[in-house]
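Q: What does the assembly look like in three dimensions?
Context provided by user:
Components: two
Sequences:
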Amino acid sequence: MTRPPSDEDFTELVHAAWPSLYRTAYLLLGDRAEAEDLVQSALAKTYASWGRVRSLEAGPGYARTTLVNTATSWFRRRSWRNERPTATLPDHGTVGSDPSDRPALVAALAQLPPRQRAVVVLRYYDDLSVAETASALAITEGTVKSQTSDALTKLRALLGDDVLPQTNGATR
Amino acid sequence: MSDDLHDLLAREADRLDVPRAPAAGILADGRRLRGRRRATTGVAALAAVVALGGGYALLDPGPSDQDAVEPAGPPTTDLGAAFAIGSTVHLRDGAVSATLPVPRVGNLSYTSVGVVVQAYDADQEPLGTHLVAADGTVSDLDVPSSATSDPGSPLLVWTTEVDGVVTVVAQDVWTDERVAEIPLPDHPGGFAPARLDGEHVYVGGSDTGVLDVDLRTEEVRVAPALEVVDEVAGGRSNLGYGGHVAVIDVATGEEIVSRDVTERSAGYFQLSPGGRYARYVDQSRQQRQFDLYDLTTGTPTTLPGSPGRWGWTADGRPFTVSDLGELVVCGSRPCTTTRLDLDVLPNQYPDDVGEEVCHEFADGSSECSMEGTENHDDDLALGGSTGWS
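A: Here is the predicted structure of the complete assembly.
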Protein backbone atom coordinates (compact mmCIF):
# COMPACT_ATOMS: atom_id res chain seq x y z
CA MET A 1 0.00 0.00 0.00
CA THR A 2 1.31 3.42 -0.91
CA ARG A 3 2.46 5.28 2.16
CA PRO A 4 0.30 8.25 3.15
CA PRO A 5 1.64 11.73 2.47
CA SER A 6 3.60 13.64 5.07
CA ASP A 7 1.57 15.59 7.62
CA GLU A 8 2.71 18.83 6.04
CA ASP A 9 1.71 17.79 2.53
CA PHE A 10 -1.69 16.49 3.61
CA THR A 11 -2.38 19.59 5.71
CA GLU A 12 -1.60 21.72 2.69
CA LEU A 13 -3.94 19.61 0.58
CA VAL A 14 -6.71 19.99 3.16
CA HIS A 15 -6.38 23.76 3.24
CA ALA A 16 -6.34 23.96 -0.54
CA ALA A 17 -9.31 21.67 -1.16
CA TRP A 18 -11.47 22.67 1.80
CA PRO A 19 -13.23 25.82 0.47
CA SER A 20 -14.36 24.25 -2.79
CA LEU A 21 -15.44 20.99 -1.13
CA TYR A 22 -17.29 22.87 1.58
CA ARG A 23 -19.26 24.88 -0.97
CA THR A 24 -20.29 21.75 -2.87
CA ALA A 25 -21.19 20.01 0.39
CA TYR A 26 -23.30 22.95 1.51
CA LEU A 27 -25.20 23.03 -1.75
CA LEU A 28 -25.74 19.26 -1.51
CA LEU A 29 -26.94 19.27 2.08
CA GLY A 30 -28.18 22.79 2.76
CA ASP A 31 -26.75 22.80 6.25
CA ARG A 32 -23.45 24.26 7.41
CA ALA A 33 -22.73 21.77 10.20
CA GLU A 34 -23.62 18.80 8.00
CA ALA A 35 -21.47 20.21 5.22
CA GLU A 36 -18.51 20.55 7.56
CA ASP A 37 -19.01 16.97 8.76
CA LEU A 38 -19.23 15.70 5.19
CA VAL A 39 -16.04 17.41 4.05
CA GLN A 40 -14.14 16.25 7.15
CA SER A 41 -15.31 12.71 6.51
CA ALA A 42 -14.37 12.83 2.82
CA LEU A 43 -10.89 14.17 3.49
CA ALA A 44 -10.25 11.67 6.29
CA LYS A 45 -11.33 8.84 3.97
CA THR A 46 -9.00 10.23 1.32
CA TYR A 47 -6.08 10.01 3.72
CA ALA A 48 -7.07 6.50 4.79
CA SER A 49 -7.34 5.37 1.15
CA TRP A 50 -4.10 6.91 -0.02
CA GLY A 51 -3.09 3.66 -1.70
CA ARG A 52 -5.74 4.40 -4.30
CA VAL A 53 -5.04 8.12 -4.54
CA ARG A 54 -1.33 7.69 -5.07
CA SER A 55 -0.39 11.33 -5.68
CA LEU A 56 -1.05 14.68 -4.07
CA GLU A 57 -2.33 16.05 -7.36
CA ALA A 58 -5.09 13.44 -7.46
CA GLY A 59 -6.07 14.09 -3.83
CA PRO A 60 -8.65 16.86 -4.32
CA GLY A 61 -10.41 14.94 -7.09
CA TYR A 62 -10.53 11.77 -5.01
CA ALA A 63 -11.86 13.73 -2.06
CA ARG A 64 -14.59 15.27 -4.21
CA THR A 65 -15.76 11.87 -5.42
CA THR A 66 -15.60 10.49 -1.90
CA LEU A 67 -17.65 13.45 -0.75
CA VAL A 68 -20.36 12.74 -3.32
CA ASN A 69 -20.34 9.02 -2.51
CA THR A 70 -20.59 9.71 1.20
CA ALA A 71 -23.43 12.17 0.68
CA THR A 72 -25.19 9.59 -1.45
CA SER A 73 -24.88 6.99 1.29
CA TRP A 74 -26.33 9.52 3.71
CA PHE A 75 -29.24 10.08 1.34
CA ARG A 76 -29.85 6.33 1.20
CA ARG A 77 -30.07 6.06 4.94
CA ARG A 78 -33.59 5.31 5.95
CA SER A 79 -33.48 8.02 8.54
CA TRP A 80 -32.41 10.79 6.17
CA ARG A 81 -35.89 11.54 4.90
CA ASN A 82 -37.48 11.02 8.28
CA GLU A 83 -35.01 13.07 10.25
CA ARG A 84 -36.08 16.38 11.60
CA PRO A 85 -33.89 18.68 13.62
CA THR A 86 -34.70 18.72 17.30
CA ALA A 87 -35.26 22.12 18.85
CA THR A 88 -33.16 23.67 16.13
CA LEU A 89 -34.33 25.29 12.95
CA PRO A 90 -32.65 24.19 9.74
CA ASP A 91 -29.56 26.26 9.07
CA HIS A 92 -29.86 28.05 5.79
CA GLY A 93 -26.79 30.11 6.44
CA THR A 94 -26.55 33.75 5.55
CA VAL A 95 -27.53 33.33 1.96
CA GLY A 96 -30.79 34.67 0.70
CA SER A 97 -30.54 38.13 2.19
CA ASP A 98 -31.18 39.61 -1.22
CA PRO A 99 -34.99 39.89 -1.46
CA SER A 100 -34.81 39.65 -5.23
CA ASP A 101 -33.76 36.01 -4.84
CA ARG A 102 -37.31 35.11 -3.64
CA PRO A 103 -36.83 32.58 -2.09
CA ALA A 104 -33.10 31.95 -1.71
CA LEU A 105 -31.79 29.34 -4.07
CA VAL A 106 -30.52 27.16 -1.24
CA ALA A 107 -33.92 27.27 0.42
CA ALA A 108 -35.43 26.15 -2.87
CA LEU A 109 -32.84 23.40 -3.25
CA ALA A 110 -33.72 22.20 0.22
CA GLN A 111 -37.22 21.48 -0.99
CA LEU A 112 -35.96 19.02 -3.58
CA PRO A 113 -35.53 15.32 -2.79
CA PRO A 114 -31.85 14.55 -1.98
CA ARG A 115 -31.07 12.86 -5.28
CA GLN A 116 -32.55 15.68 -7.34
CA ARG A 117 -30.57 18.17 -5.29
CA ALA A 118 -27.39 16.20 -5.89
CA VAL A 119 -28.05 16.01 -9.62
CA VAL A 120 -28.56 19.76 -9.82
CA VAL A 121 -25.43 20.57 -7.81
CA LEU A 122 -23.19 18.18 -9.71
CA ARG A 123 -24.44 19.18 -13.13
CA TYR A 124 -24.87 22.91 -12.71
CA TYR A 125 -22.33 23.80 -10.02
CA ASP A 126 -19.59 21.24 -10.53
CA ASP A 127 -20.17 21.15 -14.30
CA LEU A 128 -20.26 17.38 -14.58
CA SER A 129 -21.73 15.80 -17.67
CA VAL A 130 -24.76 13.51 -17.53
CA ALA A 131 -22.48 10.47 -17.72
CA GLU A 132 -20.17 11.76 -14.99
CA THR A 133 -23.12 12.60 -12.75
CA ALA A 134 -24.59 9.14 -13.30
CA SER A 135 -21.27 7.56 -12.39
CA ALA A 136 -20.78 9.70 -9.30
CA LEU A 137 -24.27 8.94 -7.97
CA ALA A 138 -24.32 5.31 -9.13
CA ILE A 139 -27.51 5.81 -11.12
CA THR A 140 -28.31 5.51 -14.81
CA GLU A 141 -27.94 8.35 -17.27
CA GLY A 142 -31.66 8.15 -17.89
CA THR A 143 -32.31 8.69 -14.20
CA VAL A 144 -29.99 11.69 -14.21
CA LYS A 145 -31.96 13.22 -17.09
CA SER A 146 -35.35 12.56 -15.57
CA GLN A 147 -34.24 13.77 -12.13
CA THR A 148 -32.77 16.89 -13.70
CA SER A 149 -35.98 17.60 -15.54
CA ASP A 150 -38.10 17.12 -12.44
CA ALA A 151 -35.74 19.22 -10.34
CA LEU A 152 -35.75 22.11 -12.80
CA THR A 153 -39.52 22.05 -13.02
CA LYS A 154 -39.74 22.36 -9.24
CA LEU A 155 -37.07 25.03 -9.07
CA ARG A 156 -38.83 27.08 -11.73
CA ALA A 157 -42.05 26.83 -9.79
CA LEU A 158 -40.27 27.98 -6.65
CA LEU A 159 -38.02 30.64 -8.13
CA GLY A 160 -39.92 31.85 -11.14
CA ASP A 161 -39.10 31.74 -14.83
CA ASP A 162 -37.36 35.09 -14.67
CA VAL A 163 -34.89 33.71 -12.13
CA LEU A 164 -34.57 30.34 -13.79
CA PRO A 165 -35.16 30.61 -17.52
CA GLN A 166 -35.46 27.68 -19.88
CA THR A 167 -31.74 27.91 -20.70
CA ASN A 168 -30.31 26.54 -17.55
CA GLY A 169 -26.59 26.92 -17.86
CA ALA A 170 -25.56 23.30 -18.12
CA THR A 171 -22.58 23.22 -20.39
CA ARG A 172 -22.54 19.49 -20.99
CA MET B 1 -32.65 38.69 -13.01
CA SER B 2 -31.82 36.42 -15.87
CA ASP B 3 -28.80 34.49 -14.61
CA ASP B 4 -28.61 30.85 -15.52
CA LEU B 5 -28.61 28.13 -12.88
CA HIS B 6 -24.85 27.74 -12.94
CA ASP B 7 -24.36 31.40 -12.12
CA LEU B 8 -27.00 31.31 -9.40
CA LEU B 9 -25.35 28.35 -7.71
CA ALA B 10 -21.90 29.86 -8.06
CA ARG B 11 -23.08 33.11 -6.51
CA GLU B 12 -24.74 31.32 -3.60
CA ALA B 13 -21.58 29.31 -3.00
CA ASP B 14 -19.35 32.37 -3.21
CA ARG B 15 -21.41 34.13 -0.56
CA LEU B 16 -20.81 31.37 1.95
CA ASP B 17 -18.64 32.15 4.92
CA VAL B 18 -16.32 29.16 4.68
CA PRO B 19 -15.09 27.98 8.11
CA ARG B 20 -11.44 27.30 8.77
CA ALA B 21 -10.39 23.79 7.82
CA PRO B 22 -9.77 21.61 10.93
CA ALA B 23 -6.72 20.06 9.30
CA ALA B 24 -5.28 18.50 12.47
CA GLY B 25 -8.57 16.79 13.29
CA ILE B 26 -8.96 15.50 9.74
CA LEU B 27 -5.45 14.12 9.81
CA ALA B 28 -6.13 12.37 13.12
CA ASP B 29 -9.41 10.94 11.82
CA GLY B 30 -7.65 9.77 8.66
CA ARG B 31 -4.99 7.98 10.67
CA ARG B 32 -7.57 6.20 12.80
CA LEU B 33 -9.61 5.23 9.75
CA ARG B 34 -6.49 3.95 8.01
CA GLY B 35 -5.67 1.82 11.02
CA ARG B 36 -9.15 0.35 11.06
CA ARG B 37 -9.11 -0.35 7.33
CA ARG B 38 -5.79 -2.09 7.54
CA ALA B 39 -7.39 -4.39 10.07
CA THR B 40 -10.14 -5.26 7.62
CA THR B 41 -8.20 -5.99 4.49
CA GLY B 42 -10.50 -8.81 3.55
CA VAL B 43 -13.04 -6.28 2.39
CA ALA B 44 -13.37 -6.38 -1.37
CA ALA B 45 -11.35 -3.68 -3.07
CA LEU B 46 -13.37 -1.51 -5.36
CA ALA B 47 -12.10 0.67 -8.14
CA ALA B 48 -12.55 4.33 -7.41
CA VAL B 49 -13.96 6.80 -9.84
CA VAL B 50 -11.97 9.92 -9.36
CA ALA B 51 -12.50 13.37 -10.68
CA LEU B 52 -9.35 14.62 -12.33
CA GLY B 53 -9.05 17.99 -13.99
CA GLY B 54 -12.74 18.39 -14.59
CA GLY B 55 -13.19 14.85 -15.90
CA TYR B 56 -13.58 11.51 -14.17
CA ALA B 57 -11.00 8.76 -14.48
CA LEU B 58 -11.02 5.22 -13.22
CA LEU B 59 -8.19 4.43 -10.85
CA ASP B 60 -7.05 0.96 -9.98
CA PRO B 61 -7.29 -0.11 -6.40
CA GLY B 62 -3.93 -0.07 -4.66
CA PRO B 63 -2.08 -3.23 -3.81
CA SER B 64 -3.33 -4.87 -0.67
CA ASP B 65 -1.21 -5.46 2.40
CA GLN B 66 -0.03 -8.97 3.03
CA ASP B 67 -1.16 -8.96 6.59
CA ALA B 68 -0.74 -11.65 9.21
CA VAL B 69 -4.40 -11.19 10.08
CA GLU B 70 -6.68 -11.03 7.09
CA PRO B 71 -10.25 -11.30 8.28
CA ALA B 72 -12.86 -12.08 5.69
CA GLY B 73 -16.28 -10.54 5.51
CA PRO B 74 -18.65 -8.40 3.50
CA PRO B 75 -18.02 -4.70 2.90
CA THR B 76 -18.43 -2.65 6.03
CA THR B 77 -22.01 -1.50 6.47
CA ASP B 78 -23.18 1.51 8.39
CA LEU B 79 -24.95 -0.13 11.32
CA GLY B 80 -26.31 3.21 12.54
CA ALA B 81 -27.84 3.00 15.99
CA ALA B 82 -28.34 -0.48 17.44
CA PHE B 83 -30.57 -1.18 20.41
CA ALA B 84 -32.64 -3.99 21.84
CA ILE B 85 -36.08 -4.03 23.39
CA GLY B 86 -36.59 -7.28 25.24
CA SER B 87 -35.40 -10.00 22.90
CA THR B 88 -35.62 -7.96 19.69
CA VAL B 89 -32.49 -6.33 18.34
CA HIS B 90 -32.87 -3.28 16.11
CA LEU B 91 -30.00 -1.96 14.02
CA ARG B 92 -29.33 0.47 11.17
CA ASP B 93 -31.41 3.13 12.91
CA GLY B 94 -34.33 0.73 13.28
CA ALA B 95 -34.45 -0.31 9.60
CA VAL B 96 -33.48 -3.92 10.40
CA SER B 97 -34.55 -6.04 13.34
CA ALA B 98 -34.18 -9.60 14.56
CA THR B 99 -35.88 -11.39 17.43
CA LEU B 100 -33.89 -13.99 19.34
CA PRO B 101 -35.64 -16.94 21.09
CA VAL B 102 -34.46 -15.80 24.52
CA PRO B 103 -36.06 -13.68 27.25
CA ARG B 104 -33.86 -10.67 26.62
CA VAL B 105 -30.60 -9.49 25.10
CA GLY B 106 -28.11 -6.83 26.14
CA ASN B 107 -24.51 -5.66 25.94
CA LEU B 108 -24.62 -4.70 22.29
CA SER B 109 -21.22 -4.05 20.73
CA TYR B 110 -20.46 -3.11 17.13
CA THR B 111 -18.26 -4.93 14.67
CA SER B 112 -17.87 -4.05 11.00
CA VAL B 113 -20.23 -6.85 9.96
CA GLY B 114 -22.93 -6.69 12.60
CA VAL B 115 -23.81 -6.28 16.23
CA VAL B 116 -22.62 -8.76 18.83
CA VAL B 117 -25.18 -9.31 21.58
CA GLN B 118 -25.34 -11.27 24.79
CA ALA B 119 -28.48 -13.33 25.44
CA TYR B 120 -29.85 -13.65 28.98
CA ASP B 121 -32.37 -15.92 30.62
CA ALA B 122 -35.23 -14.75 32.82
CA ASP B 123 -32.88 -14.62 35.82
CA GLN B 124 -30.44 -12.37 33.94
CA GLU B 125 -27.95 -15.21 33.60
CA PRO B 126 -25.95 -15.24 30.32
CA LEU B 127 -27.17 -17.78 27.76
CA GLY B 128 -24.74 -17.18 24.93
CA THR B 129 -23.35 -14.72 22.42
CA HIS B 130 -24.79 -14.02 18.99
CA LEU B 131 -24.03 -11.98 15.91
CA VAL B 132 -26.87 -10.01 14.37
CA ALA B 133 -25.59 -9.21 10.89
CA ALA B 134 -26.43 -6.03 9.01
CA ASP B 135 -29.25 -7.81 7.17
CA GLY B 136 -30.77 -9.13 10.42
CA THR B 137 -29.38 -12.66 10.13
CA VAL B 138 -28.59 -14.18 13.53
CA SER B 139 -25.76 -16.63 14.16
CA ASP B 140 -24.30 -18.17 17.29
CA LEU B 141 -20.78 -17.26 18.35
CA ASP B 142 -18.40 -19.43 20.30
CA VAL B 143 -16.62 -16.67 22.22
CA PRO B 144 -16.23 -15.83 25.90
CA SER B 145 -18.14 -12.99 27.46
CA SER B 146 -14.89 -11.05 27.92
CA ALA B 147 -14.43 -10.57 24.16
CA THR B 148 -13.82 -7.02 22.96
CA SER B 149 -14.72 -5.43 19.62
CA ASP B 150 -14.05 -2.44 17.38
CA PRO B 151 -16.77 -1.06 15.06
CA GLY B 152 -14.30 -0.97 12.17
CA SER B 153 -13.22 -4.58 12.48
CA PRO B 154 -14.92 -7.98 12.10
CA LEU B 155 -12.81 -9.37 14.93
CA LEU B 156 -13.61 -10.23 18.50
CA VAL B 157 -10.55 -10.45 20.73
CA TRP B 158 -9.96 -11.86 24.19
CA THR B 159 -7.21 -13.36 26.31
CA THR B 160 -6.99 -16.91 27.57
CA GLU B 161 -4.27 -19.14 28.97
CA VAL B 162 -2.79 -21.81 26.71
CA ASP B 163 -0.42 -24.18 28.51
CA GLY B 164 -0.09 -21.61 31.26
CA VAL B 165 0.77 -18.74 28.89
CA VAL B 166 -1.54 -15.76 28.49
CA THR B 167 -2.54 -15.70 24.83
CA VAL B 168 -4.39 -13.11 22.75
CA VAL B 169 -7.06 -14.75 20.61
CA ALA B 170 -8.70 -13.03 17.63
CA GLN B 171 -11.78 -14.48 15.99
CA ASP B 172 -13.50 -13.31 12.83
CA VAL B 173 -17.21 -13.16 13.65
CA TRP B 174 -18.16 -13.36 9.97
CA THR B 175 -16.45 -16.70 9.38
CA ASP B 176 -16.49 -17.73 13.06
CA GLU B 177 -12.85 -18.75 12.65
CA ARG B 178 -9.85 -17.91 14.76
CA VAL B 179 -7.42 -15.74 12.82
CA ALA B 180 -4.72 -15.17 15.44
CA GLU B 181 -3.35 -16.65 18.64
CA ILE B 182 -0.48 -14.59 19.99
CA PRO B 183 1.23 -15.78 23.19
CA LEU B 184 2.43 -13.27 25.78
CA PRO B 185 5.09 -15.34 27.60
CA ASP B 186 6.19 -12.45 29.83
CA HIS B 187 2.68 -11.86 31.17
CA PRO B 188 2.38 -13.16 34.74
CA GLY B 189 -1.06 -14.65 34.09
CA GLY B 190 -4.29 -14.23 35.96
CA PHE B 191 -6.02 -10.93 35.32
CA ALA B 192 -5.41 -9.97 31.68
CA PRO B 193 -8.09 -7.56 30.44
CA ALA B 194 -7.95 -6.78 26.71
CA ARG B 195 -9.26 -4.02 24.47
CA LEU B 196 -9.30 -4.06 20.68
CA ASP B 197 -8.60 -0.83 18.81
CA GLY B 198 -8.11 -1.21 15.07
CA GLU B 199 -5.32 -3.69 14.58
CA HIS B 200 -3.97 -3.28 18.11
CA VAL B 201 -4.93 -5.17 21.26
CA TYR B 202 -4.09 -3.59 24.60
CA VAL B 203 -3.60 -6.07 27.42
CA GLY B 204 -3.37 -5.16 31.10
CA GLY B 205 -2.25 -7.07 34.15
CA SER B 206 1.43 -7.23 33.18
CA ASP B 207 4.16 -6.17 35.58
CA THR B 208 5.88 -4.20 32.85
CA GLY B 209 2.86 -2.09 31.93
CA VAL B 210 0.05 -2.28 29.41
CA LEU B 211 1.04 -4.43 26.45
CA ASP B 212 0.34 -3.26 22.91
CA VAL B 213 -0.11 -6.29 20.65
CA ASP B 214 -0.04 -5.63 16.90
CA LEU B 215 -2.36 -8.18 15.28
CA ARG B 216 -0.72 -7.75 11.87
CA THR B 217 2.90 -8.17 12.82
CA GLU B 218 2.31 -10.01 16.13
CA GLU B 219 4.83 -7.61 17.65
CA VAL B 220 4.35 -7.00 21.38
CA ARG B 221 5.59 -3.86 23.10
CA VAL B 222 4.70 -1.75 26.12
CA ALA B 223 2.30 1.16 25.57
CA PRO B 224 4.09 3.84 27.60
CA ALA B 225 1.14 6.24 27.86
CA LEU B 226 -1.21 3.68 29.41
CA GLU B 227 -1.20 2.71 33.07
CA VAL B 228 -4.25 0.46 33.01
CA VAL B 229 -6.57 -0.91 30.35
CA ASP B 230 -10.01 0.60 30.56
CA GLU B 231 -11.32 1.89 27.24
CA VAL B 232 -9.19 2.34 24.14
CA ALA B 233 -10.82 3.55 20.92
CA GLY B 234 -9.55 5.45 17.91
CA GLY B 235 -6.09 5.78 19.40
CA ARG B 236 -7.51 7.38 22.56
CA SER B 237 -7.97 6.12 26.07
CA ASN B 238 -9.69 7.29 29.22
CA LEU B 239 -7.59 7.87 32.29
CA GLY B 240 -8.46 8.12 35.95
CA TYR B 241 -11.43 7.78 38.22
CA GLY B 242 -11.92 10.77 40.45
CA GLY B 243 -9.24 13.40 41.01
CA HIS B 244 -7.74 14.31 37.65
CA VAL B 245 -9.47 12.48 34.82
CA ALA B 246 -8.68 12.78 31.15
CA VAL B 247 -8.85 11.36 27.68
CA ILE B 248 -5.37 10.89 26.27
CA ASP B 249 -3.76 10.14 22.94
CA VAL B 250 -2.39 6.61 23.29
CA ALA B 251 0.58 7.26 21.03
CA THR B 252 1.81 10.46 22.69
CA GLY B 253 0.18 10.52 26.12
CA GLU B 254 -1.07 14.03 25.38
CA GLU B 255 -4.29 14.97 27.18
CA ILE B 256 -7.12 15.78 24.77
CA VAL B 257 -9.72 16.74 27.38
CA SER B 258 -9.49 16.64 31.16
CA ARG B 259 -11.41 17.50 34.31
CA ASP B 260 -10.39 17.94 37.90
CA VAL B 261 -12.94 16.23 40.08
CA THR B 262 -13.49 17.27 43.69
CA GLU B 263 -12.50 14.81 46.37
CA ARG B 264 -16.15 14.26 47.25
CA SER B 265 -17.00 13.31 43.69
CA ALA B 266 -16.10 10.37 41.57
CA GLY B 267 -16.32 10.36 37.84
CA TYR B 268 -14.69 9.29 34.65
CA PHE B 269 -14.76 9.69 30.89
CA GLN B 270 -16.43 7.13 28.65
CA LEU B 271 -15.26 6.86 25.05
CA SER B 272 -17.48 6.34 22.05
CA PRO B 273 -16.73 3.45 19.69
CA GLY B 274 -14.10 4.80 17.32
CA GLY B 275 -13.05 7.38 19.89
CA ARG B 276 -14.58 10.45 18.30
CA TYR B 277 -16.53 11.51 21.37
CA ALA B 278 -16.28 11.13 25.14
CA ARG B 279 -18.85 11.78 27.82
CA TYR B 280 -18.23 12.56 31.44
CA VAL B 281 -19.98 10.27 33.91
CA ASP B 282 -20.35 11.59 37.46
CA GLN B 283 -21.00 8.62 39.69
CA SER B 284 -21.45 10.64 42.84
CA ARG B 285 -24.84 11.98 41.91
CA GLN B 286 -27.79 11.35 39.67
CA GLN B 287 -26.98 13.33 36.56
CA ARG B 288 -29.85 15.16 34.95
CA GLN B 289 -27.54 16.26 32.15
CA PHE B 290 -24.01 15.46 31.10
CA ASP B 291 -21.16 16.84 29.04
CA LEU B 292 -20.29 15.33 25.68
CA TYR B 293 -16.88 16.21 24.23
CA ASP B 294 -16.03 16.21 20.54
CA LEU B 295 -12.45 14.95 20.79
CA THR B 296 -11.51 16.38 17.40
CA THR B 297 -12.15 19.91 18.60
CA GLY B 298 -12.30 19.46 22.40
CA THR B 299 -15.64 21.24 22.37
CA PRO B 300 -18.18 20.20 25.04
CA THR B 301 -21.92 19.96 24.49
CA THR B 302 -24.54 19.34 27.16
CA LEU B 303 -27.04 16.55 26.63
CA PRO B 304 -30.09 15.96 28.80
CA GLY B 305 -30.66 13.01 31.12
CA SER B 306 -28.35 10.48 32.62
CA PRO B 307 -25.44 9.21 30.50
CA GLY B 308 -26.77 5.69 31.05
CA ARG B 309 -29.84 6.61 29.02
CA TRP B 310 -27.64 7.16 25.97
CA GLY B 311 -25.87 4.64 23.77
CA TRP B 312 -23.50 5.16 20.86
CA THR B 313 -24.11 4.65 17.17
CA ALA B 314 -21.64 2.55 15.20
CA ASP B 315 -19.88 5.71 14.03
CA GLY B 316 -19.66 6.92 17.62
CA ARG B 317 -22.47 9.46 17.99
CA PRO B 318 -24.64 9.43 21.12
CA PHE B 319 -28.22 8.29 20.71
CA THR B 320 -31.21 7.43 22.80
CA VAL B 321 -34.63 5.89 22.23
CA SER B 322 -37.52 7.65 23.88
CA ASP B 323 -40.43 5.92 25.56
CA LEU B 324 -42.53 7.00 22.60
CA GLY B 325 -40.30 5.13 20.19
CA GLU B 326 -38.31 8.05 18.82
CA LEU B 327 -34.65 7.71 17.95
CA VAL B 328 -32.66 10.80 18.94
CA VAL B 329 -29.12 11.04 17.55
CA CYS B 330 -26.78 13.84 18.58
CA GLY B 331 -23.16 14.83 18.15
CA SER B 332 -21.38 17.98 17.09
CA ARG B 333 -24.23 18.90 14.81
CA PRO B 334 -27.85 19.48 15.92
CA CYS B 335 -29.67 16.45 17.25
CA THR B 336 -32.13 14.72 14.97
CA THR B 337 -35.24 12.81 15.95
CA THR B 338 -36.68 9.97 13.89
CA ARG B 339 -39.97 8.24 14.58
CA LEU B 340 -39.31 4.50 14.67
CA ASP B 341 -41.70 1.83 13.49
CA LEU B 342 -41.60 -0.41 16.57
CA ASP B 343 -43.97 -3.21 17.49
CA VAL B 344 -42.96 -2.93 21.13
CA LEU B 345 -41.99 0.33 22.78
CA PRO B 346 -39.38 0.56 25.53
CA ASN B 347 -40.67 0.38 29.07
CA GLN B 348 -41.54 3.58 30.76
CA TYR B 349 -38.56 4.89 32.65
CA PRO B 350 -39.28 6.00 36.22
CA ASP B 351 -39.10 9.75 36.74
CA ASP B 352 -37.33 9.30 40.04
CA VAL B 353 -34.77 6.65 40.69
CA GLY B 354 -34.10 7.45 44.30
CA GLU B 355 -34.30 10.12 46.93
CA GLU B 356 -32.19 13.24 46.95
CA VAL B 357 -30.14 13.34 50.16
CA CYS B 358 -28.05 16.37 51.13
CA HIS B 359 -24.98 16.25 53.37
CA GLU B 360 -23.52 19.22 55.20
CA PHE B 361 -19.78 19.33 55.73
CA ALA B 362 -17.69 20.91 58.48
CA ASP B 363 -16.67 23.81 56.26
CA GLY B 364 -20.32 24.77 55.88
CA SER B 365 -20.65 23.51 52.34
CA SER B 366 -23.23 20.96 51.37
CA GLU B 367 -23.61 18.48 48.59
CA CYS B 368 -26.66 16.57 47.45
CA SER B 369 -26.85 13.24 45.75
CA MET B 370 -29.45 10.69 44.76
CA GLU B 371 -29.59 7.70 47.03
CA GLY B 372 -31.81 4.70 46.82
CA THR B 373 -32.44 1.86 44.45
CA GLU B 374 -32.56 2.40 40.75
CA ASN B 375 -35.26 0.69 38.78
CA HIS B 376 -33.51 -1.78 36.50
CA ASP B 377 -36.68 -3.30 35.14
CA ASP B 378 -36.58 -1.52 31.84
CA ASP B 379 -35.94 -3.77 28.87
CA LEU B 380 -34.11 -1.29 26.65
CA ALA B 381 -30.45 -1.98 25.89
CA LEU B 382 -28.44 0.54 23.89
CA GLY B 383 -25.49 -0.24 21.62
CA GLY B 384 -21.97 0.95 21.82
CA SER B 385 -20.00 -0.92 24.43
CA THR B 386 -16.40 -1.42 23.35
CA GLY B 387 -15.86 -4.43 25.51
CA TRP B 388 -17.54 -6.73 27.92
CA SER B 389 -17.52 -6.20 31.63
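Follow-up: The radius of gyration of chain B is 23 Å.
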